């Protein structure tokens, strides 16, 4: 049933007042707040109709009205004023976000420093998201040359992009693409969005304008960004103490490699099997690591992400001792993160290895 403009204004006044007071709202107050030049009796009649329509409810016979879920939905979709953040609010949010990022960076730096100190080798640490998928595609038609792509990810993140087209497309085509993408592209990883899938989707939709490729390209871009991570390196100078790296050219080559987080982020895709992975000398795919070994341990954050901590050193390293220490740190980190129900970042003082006499 269509709701009149007067009913909308009354409903908005009820919701606004109930949000402010948390008390049922009566007709006299609405007559004052709504700005409508009508009597309280008319307001009461409108409130009764809004109640019968499911937008309001009356907790007690003599009480005023409160919004229902349906009423809140109408309010959010059509009636509420869009809040504009004040300068103070935006500054406070920016400060909080910056602080959170600084804390995350510090967390990764602390983990790497602990691993470097405990093993006496350069250490790396990074948190890597598990592969995301897309839960839903929404393609919103704006006009003949414009539509919006909205992606809901398995992590519940939402990504969107405004698409401007150099040609015209009708609304039925956009709706068809939305249906097909929800049927064929949801629940799959970035790697599964293949050229074959894209070309078959183009044929099934009759797309000869590159719309399917553009939407799929955005999906691939978003999924790739979701699983990306940045490594933090600690203790690079420890390499120079080791006889294997006394050659400045060799040490410089390895340190340059370690300084590029994009190189190291490739390690996150490796098949661990167990919680600790040991990659010895020539087993490393990168030429810069062929004379070195890498030991990695993974930890869980409890929020759909995994992280890695590891060390890089000579092939003669004591693998058992290094693996044990990294495993201990990773296990403690997993427990600390899982135990933080308030999602605050943990303190790492408790993760130190108890053997104070062991310097390696």
Described by the principal axes of the CA atoms, the overall outline is: elongated
Beta-strand content: 15-25%
Report the major sheet: 5 strands, antiparallel
Number of helices: 11
Order of helices and strands: HHHEEHHEEEEHHHEHHEEEH
Task: Explain what this protein looks like in three dimensions.
With 360 residues, this protein is of the alpha+beta class. It is 44% helix and 17% strand. It has helices spanning 5-21, 27-33, 40-52, 69-79, 87-119, 171-184, 195-205, 211-226, 248-258, 261-264, 319-339, and strands at 56-57, 66-67, 123-129, 134-143, 146-153, 158-164, 232-234, 276-279, 292-300, 305-314. The strands form 3 sheets. Strands 7-3-10-9-8 form a 5-stranded antiparallel sheet. The protein has a 3-stranded antiparallel sheet with strand order 4-5-6. The chain has a two-stranded antiparallel ribbon with strand order 1-2. A hairpin with a 4-residue loop joins strand 9 and strand 10 (305-314). It is elongated and about 95 Å long. The model is unreliable at 341-360 (pLDDT under 50).
Notable features of this structure?
360 residues; alpha+beta; five-stranded antiparallel sheet; three-stranded antiparallel sheet; 44% helix; elongated; disordered C terminus
Secondary-structure map with pairings?
Elements: H1 5-21, H2 27-33, H3 40-52, E1 56-57, E2 66-67, H4 69-79, H5 87-119, E3 123-129, E4 134-143, E5 146-153, E6 158-164, H6 171-184, H7 195-205, H8 211-226, E7 232-234, H9 248-258, H10 261-264, E8 276-279, E9 292-300, E10 305-314, H11 319-339
Helix pairs in contact: 1-3, 1-4, 2-3, 5-11, 7-8
